[in-house]
Design brief:
Layout: H1 13-31, H2 44-64, H3 67-87, H4 96-116
Helix pairs in contact: 1-2, 2-3, 2-4, 3-4
Length: about 120
């Protein structure tokens, strides 16, 4: 059994603050009743989805000092958020491709966290 790697020093106030802000922004973006994303290209919505999951995953991973915990939480949250948007929120629809892009954002953040700490294991 492998142990969860821990940060040698506790999270700084900046790491914790960034995680709180990132998660709050994610909740607003995902659960606001009506959201219209318009941009110069047709895939702007997908870029927003990628960032809405990559940034909080990275910030929470840094604050907790655990890539595994951050990936687990946000990888589970990606499909759940699409289901909530589809079945619960008026004016919103869930999209399988949004969930896929959300998971790509989680994976990119995880890769960045792992590369940032090459001596640590998952």
């Amino acid at each position: 059994m492998t142990s969860i790697p821990r940060r040698s020093a506790p999270a700084t106030w900046l790491d914790t603050s960034a995680a709180v802000v990132a998660v709050a922004a994610q909740m607003l973006a995902l659960y606001w009743p009506v959201v219209t994303v318009e941009g110069p290209v047709t895939w702007t919505d997908k870029v927003v989805h990628l960032l809405v999951f990559a940034v909080p995953t990275y910030a929470v991973g840094r604050a907790l000092g655990s890539v595994r915990a951050a990936v687990l939480v946000f990888a589970l949250h990606a499909p759940v958020s699409e289901l909530v948007q589809h079945f619960v929120l008026p004016g919103r629809t869930g999209d399988v491709w949004d969930a896929v892009v959300d998971l790509v954002g989680v994976a990119l953040a995880a890769a960045l966290l792992v590369v940032r700490r090459p001596s640590r294991r998952w």
